[in-house]
């Protein structure tokens, strides 16, 4: 068996050069990992100043500490919001989604859809997903040279989402556009209005301060109106025709925010995970050959893909009381940010974490969280999508190479690749 290749050893940065609040630091493929390595080694619970009007946050970068915080929703709540933006109480209530709830309400909202994302519930989709994957890949590979993100890793998950939402296939490009504009709110190639600009104040009551949210709301409301009171099996029907277990009905605002979360989370994260996995296989061709020679390795390799990709850099919590973590005094109301991407490269957990190794076993990654109440609802679907994608892709290619610059999303939240130009020789 061929030995895994080690990624470029660029080394940690001096601590004084670390700035996790600067989105420009996240367009370079190596710099985020160098900053996070420095923090794990030198200051694993690190106070990171931020530009006004934000007040700074605690960056938690060790795997063990991330797990501790993620599982303790009483001390580290999500109700104070899960991104870095500091939102006043009125706006919190207006913009609150499943992500920004805890306790009974969180469980009630989560269980509306939870059973639809179990491995058993998803199993009947496998035949459909294989057919969809084949269609996506055959169209892309026929081009020879193409942008892997646009033609494969964005196209496939959005068509899966369209099936789950029961919306026309012709709407998929619009769904992708909405996701780009909302999640990419710090990237000038995507955002209608950049988050850090003064113009964003006009949209402060919208998720991610993105005007695209209004279009998503309108689209979702039309679907809800058409399906309310009917017996559809899609996710929208489940939301509008089911009663939350806590007895509190789903308000129109609750539906808006839940639907927007499905549109964004159901597409963006899997898309970026597939892109990063493909990029890693291109950069480590011996790993690609291992999987081609022994496809039985692919299900296990998916866990390494997810560790390596870390498609979401972080999620935020807010301290509900004064507490100490690794000797640092965290005050009530402080932002505490879990850098899941850093936990996935923790030297205490992963042997040679900078090595991409598709034969790695017991991959204890925190890409979906780690056993806390906010463990990713769609984790089984993402795993299935990635497994089927590479089971179908790898036998179809004899060679795949980069054919231009790999461009990344300007964001310290989503670890995204927006362009991955490749040239493929078909098998």
Q: Would you kindly provide a written description of the structure presented here, covering whatever features stand out?
A:
It is built from 17 helices and twelve strands. Helix 13 crosses helix 15 and helix 15 crosses helix 17. The strands form four sheets. A five-stranded mixed beta sheet has the order 1-2-8-5-3, with helices on one face. The N terminus is likely disordered. The chain has 427 residues and is an alpha+beta fold. Helix content is 42%, strand content 11%.
- Characterize the largest beta sheet: strand count, sense, and whether it forms a barrel: 5 strands, mixed
- Give the mean pLDDT: 94
Determine the fraction of residues in helical runs and give it as a percent range: 40-55%
Shape by Cα distribution: globular
Strand content: 5-15%
Radius of gyration: 21 Å
Q: How many beta-strand elements?
A: 12
What string, H for helix and E for strand, traces the elements in order? HEEHEHHHHEHHHHHHHHHEEEEHHEEEE
Decide which structural class fits the backbone: alpha+beta
Strand order of the largest sheet: 1-2-8-5-3
Low-confidence stretches: 1-9
**SS element count, helices:** 17
Ends apart, CA distance between termini: 22 Å
Give a quick precis of the structure:
This protein is α+β, with helices and mostly antiparallel strands. The protein has 17 helices and twelve strands. The longest helix is centred in the N-terminal third of the chain and has 16 residues, at 126-141.
